[in-house]
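User: Teach me something about this protein's shape.
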Amino acid sequence: MTTRRPPARAPSPPGSGGFRSAVGAPPKAAELRAQLDGIATGLTGVLDELREFARGIHPAILADGGLGPALRTLGRRCPIPLTLDVATGGRLPEPVEVCAYYVVSEALANAAKHSHASAITVQVQAAGDVLHVEARDDGAGGARLGAGSGLIGLKDRVEALGGQFTLRTGRGTARLSALNCRSPQPIPSDHPRRA
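Assistant: First, the predicted structure itself:
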């Protein structure tokens, strides 16, 4: 018994956008190929725009309910037991709440994926014009700021608000952030917010 193999196909010629021209192709094949190339280029642009847009999206509960409810919702999805303490005294400026949310979100995700932690503690406390965010786990440690690390993006986000981001690792990992709340007064918790 023999196995039939399909004939080998030649690679697409350069500049063809991945579409090969067929011998004896219909007269409009070149036009169709150009249209498909244009569609592929357009879809790539749309995908890039969608990715950029998605970077700015945050959960509706953060915009509607504030940092405390958003972090409690995030904590309920965490596969590792979480102790969460949030004391903000009301709403904070939106950029500060969004940044704090992402600091905690990344800490929980990293602990779940990499640390082998059995517990995580997150404390968020407003003191004057500063919001302190501390996330600690009891895992293996080893987190570091470096190329390809989501921690670099967090550090940049915190520093863009005039804050400080510190990473301590050893047995367990601690992510410490101090965010500058440049608003003279925290926004009251019953204040309506729109994203």
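Now, about its shape. The chain has a mean pLDDT of 76. Strands lie at 82-87, 120-127, 130-137, 164-170, 172-180. If you'd like, I can walk through any region in more detail.
User: That's plenty for now, thanks!
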